[in-house]
Amino acid sequence: MDIIQKIRNSEADLTESERKVCRKILEDPSIVTMYTISQIAMMADTSTAAVLRFCQRLGCKGYKDFRYEVMNWLRANENKDGHRDIVTSVAAAYAAAIEELGGLDRASLKLLCDDILSSEKTVVLGRMRTSTAAEKLRMNLTGLGITALSGADTLAFQHLLYIINEKTAVIMFSTTGEITDQLEFLKQQKEQSQRIWLVTPARKAKMSAWADHTIVIPAVKSGTTFAGSQTVMMAFADILTALLEDISCAGE
Fold first, then answer.
1. What does the DSSP 8-state code read for residue 104?
2. So where are the chain's domains?
3. Residue 237 burial (CB < 10 Å; 0-12/13-18/19+)?
C-alpha cells in the first residue's frame, strides 16, 4: 500500500488536529517536498507535535521518513502519468503556473498600480526565499523612477516601520501566508498604512487579515523540493512592472 492510500485509510482514526494535517496533505501532497514540519503545521493550523504524531501513525519514524515516502510516491506517479524525467516535470510545473498568471484579475492589478503610483514610496517585503522576489520588484520599481525599499527579514521589517505611513504602499510576498512571529509587526503596519497588499499562492492566507488586498498567484505543483512559488512571484514582479510602465507612458 502506498503512502497516499495509507493517509486516506487512516483519516477516520485520527484526532482532529491530525486530521487537519491529513486534509492539507491530501489536498496537495507536493507541499511535503517544499516545506518544513513547522511550516506544514502552520498551513494546517495545528502544531508540529500533531504533524509528528500523524507521521508516526502512518508507520514513519518522523517527518523526514514521511517526506521520503511522499517524494517516492510523487516520482512514481509522474512516471505513470507520462514517463517524464525530472527536467520535463519541473519545467512543466513552472510553465503551467506561469501560464495561469494570465488569468489574474485585471481590476486588482490596476488598483495595485494606482496605489503604487499615488504613494510617496513603496515598501516590498519578503523573507527567506521570497526575499529574492521582493528585491527584484524593488529594483524594477527603482528602474521606473519609483521610490522603493525592500526588507528581507524581521529585523529589517521593524526598521521599515519607522518610514511606513498613510502615503506608503506596502507589498508583502509570502509562500504560506502564515503570520507566525510576524503578528506584532503586521498589527503596527496595519495601523500606519491602508495600502497593504499580500501576494501569495495560499488561498486561505492568515496574513490576509492584516492586508487591505490579497492577490492569489498560481502555486507550483511539483514533486521536487527545489521547485516553488518564488519563481512565479518574480514573474509577477515583471508583469506588475510592465503594467506600471504602460500606465505611466499612457499618462504622458
1. S
2. 3-83, 99-251
3. buried
- In three-state secondary structure terms, 127 is coil
Q: Which of 190, 188, 171 is nearest to 130 (CA)?
A: 171
Cell numbers for 140: 524594477
Query: What CATH topology corresponds to 3-83?
Result: Arc Repressor Mutant, subunit A (1.10.10)
| Cα distances (Å, whole numbers) of residue 23 to 11, 18, 32, 222, 236 | 9, 9, 13, 18, 29
Alpha-carbon distances of 82 from 86, 92, 110, 227, rounded to whole Å:
11, 12, 39, 19
Helix boundaries (H) for the chain: 3-10, 16-27, 31-34, 37-43, 48-57, 63-82, 86-100, 106-117, 131-143, 154-160, 183-192, 230-251
**What cell numbers appear for 252 in the block?**
504622458
Report the topology of domain 99-251.
Rossmann fold (3.40.50)
pLDDT, tens only, 210-227: 999 999 999 887 655 555
pTM of the entire predicted model: 0.76
In 3D space, the residue among 228, 235, 170 whose CA is nearest the CA of residue 201 turns out to be: 228
Q: Which residue has the cell 512592472?
A: 241
pLDDT digits (tens, 9 = 90+) for 135-183: 999 999 999 999 999 999 889 999 999 999 999 999 999 988 888 778 8
Nearest to 171 by CA among 209, 206, 140, 213: 213
> Cα 209 from chain centroid?
15
3-state class (DSSP) for residue 92:
helix
The whole-angstrom distance between residue 248's C-alpha and the CA centroid of its chain comes to 29
DSSP per-residue string spanning 14-33 = S-HHHHHHHHHHHH-TTHHH
Cell of 82: 507520462
